[in-house]
Specification:
five-stranded mixed beta sheet, three-stranded parallel beta sheet, 279 residues, D-Maltodextrin-Binding Protein, domain 2, alpha/beta
Length: 279
């Protein structure tokens, strides 16, 4: 009887200890949103070699669509668009920077893929994109089918999605792989490559600024795509704020500011805010 009573007492003590420990652990857990607000600035991972998304201008200033979108988020959080710090990374460096907690979120020409969503969480898309091919006019390439010849070389980024597209659309062409879009562009400009595959807005930007040398081939490599803001998974409060902010940019109260940024960098209006405004 005494042993049974002692067993019950120890069970109760153990249960109480577990409850207290669990409560303390939950109390110690803090949403990244609270961390950001207490810190007083937003820390954003971005690529800095992908115009017009993010790049250094002739004055060395970091500019671009993604940069202005990040500043709009800082404006919402702190009433000050300058309260944001940018962490420049390579394409593969995006994920460790988020997983390690080095940055609060990522904005940087980043397509939402299901395999990427295993590592990071995405908001709904803040911009739609696609993958286009930019070619040197000297190459004589006029169609995607023309590119599929062993005499041509295509510059791609070091990621599995571009490798898969190269095998699917131009398997006969030679491949060069780079860590940054700027390196891809220089490869085409220098003649090391005849073409490159990149997000459509970037391809159009480079073609517009190099009209005598380059052009974008008609058609996309596959389906159109979504570019989302990404963050470390498991923090619902932080994800919900960011997803809500993106929703308001695309279709809600922040659409005027979003449209101004979109027009600034792409020279055209974004998709309409709501279906009844498209008429």
């Amino acid at each position: 009887m005494l042993k049974s009573r002692a067993r019950h007492v120890w069970t109760a003590v153990l249960f109480a200890a577990l409850v207290v420990t669990g409560t303390e652990a939950r109390a110690e857990e803090k949403s990244r949103l609270d961390v950001v607000l207490e810190r007083g600035k937003l820390i954003v991972v971005t690529l800095t070699t992908v115009p017009p998304f993010a790049f250094n201008d002739e004055k060395g200033q970091l500019v671009g669509f993604d940069i202005d979108i990040s500043r709009l988020l800082a404006q919402a959080l702190f009433k000050d668009p300058a309260k944001v710090e940018f962490v420049s990374v390579t394409a593969e460096g995006r994920w460790p920077a988020i997983e390690s907690g080095r940055a609060d979120m990522g904005v940087g020409g980043t397509t939402t893929y299901p395999d990427r969503a295993i590592r990071v969480a995405f908001t709904r898309p803040f911009i739609d994109s696609g993958i286009s091919v930019l070619v040197s006019k000297k190459s004589g390439i006029k169609t995607l089918a023309d590119l599929n010849q062993d005499k041509f070389t295509v510059a791609s980024l070091n990621n599995p999605q571009m490798a898969d597209r190269a095998k699917r659309f131009f398997p006969k062409a030679k491949a060069l792989t780079f860590d940054t879009p700027a390196a891809q562009f220089l490869a085409v400009r220098s003649g090391r490559a005849n073409a490159l595959q990149i997000d459509t807005p970037s391809a159009e930007y480079w073609a517009a600024h190099n009209k005598d040398e380059m052009e974008v081939l008609p058609g996309l490599l596959g389906a159109s795509q979504n570019n989302g803001v990404f963050m470390k998974p498991g923090d619902f409060k932080w994800w919900l704020w960011l997803d809500t902010a993106v929703a308001e940019m695309r279709t809600g109260s922040w659409y005027p500011q979003y449209a101004e940024i979109y027009q600034k960098w792409f020279g055209k209006n974004p998709p309409p805010q709501k279906f009844y405004l498209a008429q």
